Amino acid sequence: MALRVVVFDVGETLVNEAATYERWHAESATKFVFAERDLHSDALPCLAALRTRGLRLGAAGNMYAHHEEFLRPHVDFVGSSERWGVQKPDTEFFARVVEAAAAPAGEILYVGDRVDNDVSPALAAGLRAIRVRRGAHADVESPPGIVTIGSLQELPEALDRV
Ligand SMILES: [Mg+2]
Questions:
Q1: Ligand 1 center–CA 7 separation, angstroms
Q2: What is the extent of the structural domain holding 114?
Q3: How many domains does the chain have?
């Protein structure tokens, strides 16, 4: 089966969470909204590189529904735990991802920073998975056999390994 869709977790995968929380704190933010500068610097170049390969792209994570607005211009579809009413690592979350991706589970890759919340449940739901090891959970070892990358810059060439 050919890979057709790549779906990204949001916190620490596309968005630099630690820096964003610092910004919100510094600005005494009362409404927590992402901005372009909150994205990891490798996020948009990675999306562009995958697009040139003809892949359909999505972003879905455990987050407020209003974050979908920020992500929508960058991908083909978005999803949030708040709108779907279900959170990772629940299998139902990944069933929603498959539905939104409009492709068989085996043709969808989920990319996330966490083994417990992203990679393991995605694989259990029949999706493919790649872990980007960074952020607050970077110290956690990937189980054997899990394709693990250090940044999204490495993602395009890692696609051949899942
Ligand atoms: Mg995350």
A1: 12
A2: 5-161
A3: 1
Count CA atoms within 13 Å of residue 26 on its CB side. 6
Separation of 154 CA from ligand 1 center, angstroms? 17
Give the three-class secondary structure for 10: coil
Q: How far apart are the CA of 125 and the centre of ligand 1, in A? A: 18
**What is the 19 CA–ligand 1 centroid distance (Å)?**
14
Q: How many helices (H) and strands (E) does the chain have?
A: 7, 6
For position 29, which CATH number holds? 3.40.50.1000
pLDDT in 10s for each residue of the chain, 162 residues? 799 999 999 999 999 999 999 999 999 999 899 999 999 999 999 999 999 999 999 999 999 999 999 999 999 999 999 999 999 999 999 999 999 999 999 999 999 999 999 999 999 999 999 999 999 999 999 999 999 999 999 999 999 999
- In the reported structure, the alpha carbon of residue 81 is separated from the centroid of ligand 1 by a whole-number distance in angstroms of 13
